[in-house]
What does this fold into?
Amino acid sequence: MNRLLAAAVLFGLGFTVANAAMVTRNIDYSVDGAKMQSVLVYDDAVKTPRPGLVMAPDWMGMNPSQVALAKQIAGKDYVILVADMYGTAVRPKTADEAGKASGNMYKHRDELRARVKAALAQLQAQQGKAPLDGKHWGAIGFCFGGAVALDLARTGADIAGVATFHGNLATDDPTLAKNIKGMVLAMNGADDSFTPESAILGFEKEMRDAGVDWQFVNYGGAVHCFAIPTADNSVKGCNYDAKVAHRAFALMHSFFEEAFAKQ
It folds into this structure.
């Protein structure tokens, strides 16, 4: 990421890096025999215990760009675990490889849910090793990761809230929404060609039928990937929008403030 882009990201997310001492630490574990390596991110210059968030990456999976994004989101407010959803043997380099990796996860939703639940457990296990308050937990996700974060909530995980950015809203089992314990915020680009109206209507019905405390926000003029700083339309219809990203991350902060206050 060049200096200009980095500055745009910081402005867009509304964070400051003054006196920041960002820590990144690999967390190795396995899920059903698959080796995983997630990355823990937090600002060590701030000693105040804070909430923990599982961050589910977009379809490109674990990579330096996702870790860099997690650093900006974490700031002084959160400890974030960037969740490895594919396993160490799968690190997509192209859109085609990412499509195959994410497609495989969609075909095996039980495995997807097991992996994101394991990521949450790994984050919670960092209490005493990272500045976690041990009480407030949430999840965020981007694109494919939005589906992952929602599926974590659908497992009945004890998390206060889930916020998704241009996430896949579809589920293999709408009845699982009855297990959701926390609040749900889905942020979508109004011109997102990857999210059909049928998926939005299905998601809204799923949330409504299950009695979930949910919000769905459409950002006018935004397309898919609006919150991913490196998205440059190389995949058609997937493009970063600094203005919309700024609004979305501000909403995410107020959303979690409300969700955590309820605990």
